[in-house]
Automatic annotation (TrEMBL):
InterPro entries for this protein: Carb_Metab_HTH_regulators, DeoR-like_C, DeoR_HTH, NagB/RpiA_transferase-like, Tscrpt_reg_HTH_DeoR_CS, WH-like_DNA-bd_sf, WH_DNA-bd_sf
A Pfam family this chain is assigned to: HTH_DeoR
Organism: Kaistia geumhonensis
Domain of life: Bacteria
Keyword Ribosomal protein set for record: no
PANTHER family with a match to the protein in the record: GLYCEROL-3-PHOSPHATE REGULON REPRESSOR, HTH-TYPE TRANSCRIPTIONAL REGULATOR SRLR-RELATED
Protein keywords: DNA-binding, Repressor, Transcription, Transcription regulation
Spans through the membrane: none
Protein name: DeoR/GlpR family transcriptional regulator of sugar metabolism
Taxonomic lineage of the native organism: Bacteria, Pseudomonadati, Pseudomonadota, Alphaproteobacteria, Hyphomicrobiales
All copies of domain HTH deoR-type, residue ranges: 3-58
SUPFAM superfamilies recorded: NagB/RpiA/CoA transferase-like, Winged helix' DNA-binding domain
Length: 251
């Protein structure tokens, strides 16, 4: 079997089963595990999967640049944003993440909302400008241009002084076993810090992120109070997360 044929088979298995086990593929094809692992390494370098111990899981398209991500699942993100905005009550202190889905949530807030929103995203802060009843607090730090959020020691120190009711979390991967993941180690650390300062964390989960994995762990899915997903997602895609005890809200 040609290398291209093996890689196509691996990606087909990944799409069908949601995971690939190197040993099983090697036995099926009568090839060495080293050969299959080399194929997995090359596919991972192309961004087509995420290698894990023993095999691979789907890679998240959410690690693309901000402009590219804005064009992915736009209607779904808008619906998730509306559902998240409806959860915010007057008088609350809410942390709103960076990213394209959080940006939609900011745009969907009701005009008469009176709350405090904390964010480390300049883009999210700008989207909040029309809401006169919303006090906006921006966390400073080094700008991580890929996601247009602040990271680093300055941001981490400022976060320690916040006590929030809710944190709307954006990640690039949500997987029942691999957890909540993202593509940058510093960004993952800031997200953990924000989670620690909120009474509840709600993940904003557009369809391309569910079942996908990125290189850096933020937290296990058990750390969530819930997640908001698109209304039309099939039950089988959400079943592993529901089985892990995650409360799912359909938008």
């Amino acid at each position: 079997m040609l290398t291209s044929e093996r890689k196509r088979l691996i990606l087909d298995r990944l799409g069908r089963d949601g995971r690939v086990v190197a040993k099983a593929v090697s036995q099926e094809l009568g090839l060495s595990e080293d050969t299959i692992r080399r194929d997995l390494r090359e596919l991972a370098s192309e961004g087509k999967l995420q290698r894990v111990h023993g095999g691979a899981l789907p890679a998240s398209p959410g690690v693309a640049d901000f402009a590219t991500r804005e064009a992915i699942a736009t209607e779904g993100k808008r619906a998730i944003g509306r559902a998240g905005a409806a959860m915010i009550e007057d008088g609350q202190v809410v942390i709103l993440d960076g990213g394209t889905t959080a940006l939609e949530l900011a745009r969907q807030l009701r005009p008469n909302l009176r709350a405090t929103i904390v964010t480390h995203s300049p883009s999210t802060a700008m989207a909040l400008m029309p809401h006169q009843g919303v006090e906006v607090i921006i966390i400073g730090g080094r700008l991580f241009r890929h996601s247009i959020v602040t990271v680093g020691a300055i941001a981490a120190e400022a976060i320690q002084r916040i006590r929030a009711d809710l944190y709307f979390l954006g990640v690039t991967g949500i997987h029942a076993e691999a957890g909540l993941t993202t593509g940058d180690i510093e960004e993952a650390a800031i997200k953990r810090a924000l989670m620690a300062q909120a009474a509840e964390t709600i993940a904003l989960a557009s369809s391309e992120k569910i079942g996908a994995v990125s290189p850096f762990l933020v937290a296990p899915v058990a750390a969530l109070a819930g997640m908001i997903v698109e209304g039309g997602l099939p039950e089988e895609k959400l079943a592993p997360l529901a089985h892990a005890g995650v409360a799912v809200t359909r938008s």
